[in-house]
TrEMBL record:
Its EC number is 3.5.2.2. GO terms for biological process: nucleobase-containing small molecule metabolic process; pyrimidine-containing compound metabolic process. Carbamylation allows a single lysine to coordinate two divalent metal cations. The gene is hydA. This is D-hydantoinase/dihydropyrimidinase. The lineage of its organism: Bacteria, Pseudomonadati, Pseudomonadota, Alphaproteobacteria, Rhodobacterales. Catalyzes the hydrolysis of dihydropyrimidines and of the structurally related DL-5-mono-substituted hydantoins, to produce N-carbamoyl-D-amino acids. Belongs to the metallo-dependent hydrolases superfamily. Hydantoinase/dihydropyrimidinase family. Gene3D superfamilies: Metal-dependent hydrolases, Urease, subunit C, domain 1. Its cofactor is Zn(2+).
Length: 486
């Protein structure tokens, strides 16, 4: 059985050309002109792009006294409707602190539900010998990235010595450290200060998390990564200060990656001063939305390549859940939506405006993160042998984003009323159509798979390769063999 995606323009991270794409089973079998098959998918007038990869979601995650409302089923279906065929979810240790158990727990929750493929990052929320040991188990279980919260004091936050120990362990294991960069001690102090001064609403959230605190933490994490000899991935970069830290580190030769969110690129801090409490609270996330100058910095970073990935941090809490913080902004569960909207909003605000080329759009929504997470070219590529995770992307379907018609379980949408000019006509996951615009079909929950991500060549090997080159040079900067040029 051969299925051919017919008549479209294939776009990859480096070029675009008119071609058909033939699929056999779960993978791409051929790319070329006038391909014949047993069945056809119409791509006339559309782009044929690698399925989006959202590397930052929190589905069903217990957090701030409640649990994120988006399920693995609704989340992966909403993703597919928006042209995203893989997401990478953050796995949090439970009360026993065990990494192994947390991964089993995430499998137990996700496996029966997922409509498309997923991977995990593991959160490191403390430090002891069993965490040291279990990080190896995580890598063997296909989880090769570890996230560190520099904020959420008294809950998830880790200290600098703990990060140094964990980053050093990542280096031994060939894993990638990631950080949520905000100075958690100062956030807690400022929250206290504004609340004590009578500021109880969502505006207190914005005031207590200024961009300087994100910039400081980003710089500190970069210093720790440099000392440990690891690359570093900084999640949800929202501001010029953090972007500047990343630019400087890269200019010095470090592999530091930055991930702006689609929300940060398009929505701003005025949302927190909206007269409707629900409106403002629904947008409370950390870091918070910033002003337009920071947005301009993030767009520039995507253009220049100093920022590599656009994600969502999709962490969906209903209005009822947000109201837990009605009298105290510190209790509003942090998180906002974007899993379904990411590609359409980025296309409209990025490609339609001329800020990004279609190739850059593919790079920042799919290919770059596939390379950073070591799953390229199985994911993130239109290439013979790659998984047939493909989107037929129609740049002529305009629509208005509405909670009433989205596929998330949320009762609102932070992009409500935003007009977008493109949409997934078809989304294929490993060769199967999991979304078709204008049709009511839904994929089978549980058909998605966990994608095991191998470690990078070990630091020890990389080091000895460097040592073999006798020229005196810094050996600290390049311990993992992440491909150059991203
Ligand atoms: N920020 C959020 O807004 N939600 C989940 C976790 C985080 O760091
Ligand atoms: Zn501290
Ligand atoms: Zn975070
Ligand atoms: Zn997050």
């Amino acid at each position: 059985m051969t299925t051919v995606i017919k008549g479209g323009t294939v776009v990859t991270a480096d070029r675009q050309w008119k071609a058909d794409v033939a699929i056999e089973g779960e993978t791409i079998a051929a790319i070329g002109e006038d391909l014949a098959g047993d069945s056809y998918i119409d791509a006339e007038g559309a782009y044929v792009i690698p399925g989006g990869i959202d590397p930052h979601t929190h589905l069903e995650m217990p957090f701030m006294g409640t649990t994120a409302a988006e399920s693995f089923e609704s989340g992966t279906f909403a993703a597919a409707a928006g042209g995203t065929t893989m997401l990478v979810d953050f796995c949090l240790p439970g009360a026993d602190g065990s990494i192994r158990n947390a991964i089993h727990d995430w499998h137990r929750k996700s496996a029966p539900q997922i409509c498309t493929d997923i991977g995990y990052h593991m959160a490191i929320t403390g430090w002891n010998e069993s965490i040291f040991d279990e990080m190896k188990d995580a890598v063997e279980m296909g989880v090769n990235s570890f996230k560190h919260f520099m904020a959420y004091k008294g809950a998830l936050m880790v200290e600098d010595d703990e990060m140094f120990a964990s980053f050093s362990r990542c280096r031994e294991l060939g894993a990638l450290p990631m950080v949520h960069a905000e100075n958690g001690d100062l956030v807690a102090a400022l929250q206290e200060k504004y609340f004590a001064a009578g500021m109880t609403g969502p505006e207190g959230h914005a005031h207590s998390r200024p961009p300087e605190l994100e910039g400081e933490a980003a710089n500190r994490a970069i210093t720790i990564a440099d000392a440990a000899g690891t690359p570093l991935y900084i999640v949800h970069v929202s501001c010029e200060q953090a972007h500047e830290a990343i630019r400087r580190a890269r200019q010095k030769g470090m592999r530091v990656y930055g991930e702006p969110l689609i929300q940060f690129l398009t929505l701003d801090e005025t949302e927190y001063f909206h007269p409707d409490w629900d409106h403002a609270a629904r947008r409370v996330m950390s870091p918070p939305f910033r002003d337009k100058a920071h947005q301009a910095s993030l767009w520039a970073g995507l253009q220049a390549g100093s920022l590599q990935v656009v994600a969502t941090d999709h962490c969906a809490f209903t209005t009822a859940q947000k109201r837990r913080g009605r009298d105290d902004f510190r209790l509003i569960p942090n998180g906002s939506n974007g899993l379904e909207e990411r590609l359409a909003v980025l296309w409209t605000e990025g490609v339609e405006t001329g800020r990004l080329t279609p190739e850059e759009f593919v790079a920042v929504t799919s290919t770059n993160i596939a390379r950073i997470l070591n799953i390229y070219p199985r994911k993130g590529a239109i290439a013979v042998g790659a998984d047939a995770d493909i989107v037929v992307w129609d740049p002529k379907i305009s629509r208005t984003i509405r909670a009433a018609s989205h596929h998330s379980v949320l009762d609102y949408n932070v992009f409500e009323g935003v007009e977008v000019t493109a949409q997934a006509r078809f989304t294929l996951s490993r060769g199967e159509v999991v979304w078709a615009w204008g049709q009511n079909s839904r994929p089978q929950p549980g058909r998605g798979r966990f994608v095991s991500r191998p470690p990078f060549p070990s630091a020890a090997q990389a080091l000895s390769r460097w040592k073999a080159l006798s020229a005196p040079r810094a050996i600290r900067r390049d311990p993992l063999n992440i491909p150059a040029g991203i």
